[in-house]
Design brief:
The protein is mostly helical and 179 residues long. Helix content is 82%, strand content 0%.
Length: 179
């Protein structure tokens, strides 16, 4: 009974915390006389959800943008990390540039992408790509580099090709980093 009572108490506290936030939101808008176009009340927000908004279509579009940018970042990030692991000079040359370009605020890039590529699915995929790309590149590069050197030497001594080293040793060893 103690475990069930503990779970019920925990859920009650979680629900109470959320209800207090909604109450504070309502009181802030109501007592502060905040115009509805700046911040609507919680009830106005809930009522707006039942309008003519096409939830399924808009959710599909947003999911397409997010996952499209993520998949593009995985393909480019893992591919570039592979090139970095194969060609150290290439990594030394390009990695500082990639890191420097990543320091540009994504909020500043959004309007530029819309101007350059028009509004729609494309610029939003590019924005999602810019958010996901560097972490994927860095962790995959680290995963490819942290393969045991003795294992790599063994495969090389057996005349293993770069592709065999990648598919049999580096890729399986770096999967935790990639994921």
């Amino acid at each position: 009974m103690g475990k069930i009572g503990g779970h019920a108490r925990r859920w009650a506290l979680i629900i109470l915390a959320h209800l207090l936030v909604v109450l504070a939101w309502h009181l802030f808008v109501d007592w502060g006389e905040v115009p509805a176009y700046i911040m609507p009340t919680p009830m106005d927000t809930v009522l707006s959800l039942r309008g003519e908004y096409n939830w399924v279509h808009n959710t599909w579009i947003t999911a397409s943008e997010v996952f499209g940018g993520y998949i593009l970042a995985v393909v480019v990030g893992v591919g570039l990390a592979l090139l970095f692991s194969w060609f150290a000079t290439f990594a030394t040359f390009l990695m500082p540039l990639v890191v420097s370009l990543n320091m540009i605020p994504k909020v500043a890039l959004g309007p530029l992408f819309i101007v350059w590529f028009d509004y729609g699915l494309g610029p939003n995929i590019i924005i999602a790509f810019t958010i996901c790309f560097l972490p994927i590149l860095i962790t995959t590069t680290r995963g490819l580099q942290e393969v045991e050197p003795d294992l790599l030497d063994l495969v090389r001594s057996l005349n293993g090709s770069r592709w065999q080293i990648f598919t049999k040793i580096q890729l399986p060893g770096s999967l935790p980093y990639i994921f």
